[in-house]
Amino acid sequence: MKIVVQVKLIPQADQAAALSATLHTLNEAANWVSCVALECGVRREYELRKHTYAQLRSSGLGAQAAQHVIKKVADAYTALKANVRAGHLGKPGSKRRRKAETKPIVFRPEAAQPYDDRCLSWRYDTQTVSIWTTAGRLKNVAFACSAGALETLREHRQGESDLIERGGVFYLYATCDVAEAEPYEPGGFIGVDLGVVNIATTSTGYKAAGRGLNRHRKRQLDLRRKLQAKATKSAKRLLKKRNRAERRHVANTNHIISKTIVIEAERTSAGISLEELTGIRQRVRLAKPQRVTLHSWAFAQLADFIVYKARRAGVPVVFVDPAYTSRQCCECGHIDKRNRVNQGLFICRNCGVVAHADRNASHNIARKGEAVWTAGRESRVPATPQGSV
Q1: CA–CA separation, 235 and 232 (whole Å)
Q2: Which pTM value belongs to this model?
Q3: Residue environment code for 42-78, b if the CB has 16+ CB neighbours within 10 A, otherwise e
Q4: Residues with Cβ < 8 Å from 127, sequence gap 6 or more?
Q5: CA angle, residues 117, 118, 123, in degrees to nearest 5
Q6: pLDDT, tens digit, for every residue of 240-261?
Q7: Which pLDDT band, with edges at 50, 70 and 90, does 359 fall under?
Q8: What are φ and ψ of residue 143, in 5° steps?
C-alpha cells in the first residue's frame, strides 16, 4: 500500500529564496502549458509534449523539470474530465461547469511540484536533501521529521516526491510503498458506531466524545462569519490560515481515534466492522441549523484512516449496512423507532433493556460484521453432483 510521509525543509535564507523562485517559475510555466492545452485541444501528455517541450527547454527549465510540468498539467486535465463526467461541477450548461470547461486550469504560485530521483536525492543519515532549482542544485538542505517517519522513508520511499510551499514554509511529500500485513482470521468483530455527538463508539467500551471538536468547530465558525463580514485582504488571508488549522486539528483527532481502535482490534485478534455511510448527506434531511454540523462531519476521513491503519496491521475490516442499527435492540433484536428515546438513551419496547444508544448500535454493527465476514468465506459455487466428471 502507498502512504505519504511529510517532512519539513529547513533551508537557509538563500536556499529558501531559490526554492520559492523555482516553484513560482515552474507554476508559471504550468499555466502557459495549460493555456496551450486548451487552445490546441491537446490534453494527453504525449501530444502536449510535442507542443510545449521545446519551448520549456529553451526558457531554461531542465529536462526532467519540463517533463514534470507537462505531466502535472495533463494530470490536472484528466482529473477535470473525471469530475465533469461524475457531475461534480454541475449539470451540462451550468455556469460552473461551463467556466471549468472553457477556462484554462490555473496553478497557484506555491502549488506542489513533483520531483523524481534525478532531481531530488535523500541523505537519511544527515537528514538532508539535494534538490534541483532554477538557480542550480541545492545541496545539504536540512529537513525535519519524526523518528517513525524517518524510518519509513529509509525503508519504503519509492517514486516521486512533491515540493510545496505553505505559509512561507517548505515541505516535501514523499511517496512510500509499505507492504501490507497478512490479514488474520478474526475471533470476533468490534463494531464502530460513528456520530457527531460521539465521534466513535465501539462495542468494546471505547467512546470518543465529540464535545471538544464540536466546540472547536463552533469557535471557528463564529470567527469565519466575522472575517467574511470584513472581506478585507488580511481577513481573507486569515480565513485560509484558519481553514488549514481546523483541517489539521480534525485530521489529528481522527488519527488518534483510528489508531486507538486498530490497536484494540489487533490486541484482541478481532476484526473491525464499520458502517457504510456513503451518500448519507443526500439521504438525510435536517433543519437548516443542523446542516453545517452534518456537512463538517469528517466520517469518511475517519473511516479511511481506520482502513489504512488496519491494512498495515493485518486487521480485517468489513463495511455493513447501517439500516436500523440505532433502532434495533442488541439483546432481543426488536426493531422500533420508539426504542431510541433520545440521542443518548435506548430503551427496548420489547424486552425493556436500557443502554446507551451509541453502544447499542455498535453491538448491532459488530453482529452484522460477523455475518458479512461469514458470508464472504462461504463458497457460492454449487456443489458438484456425485458421479459427474
Answers
A1: 5
A2: 0.80
A3: bbebeebbeebbeebeeeebbebbbbbbbbbbbebbe
A4: 142, 143, 144, 145, 150
A5: 55
A6: 888 888 889 999 999 999 999 9
A7: very high
A8: -135, 160
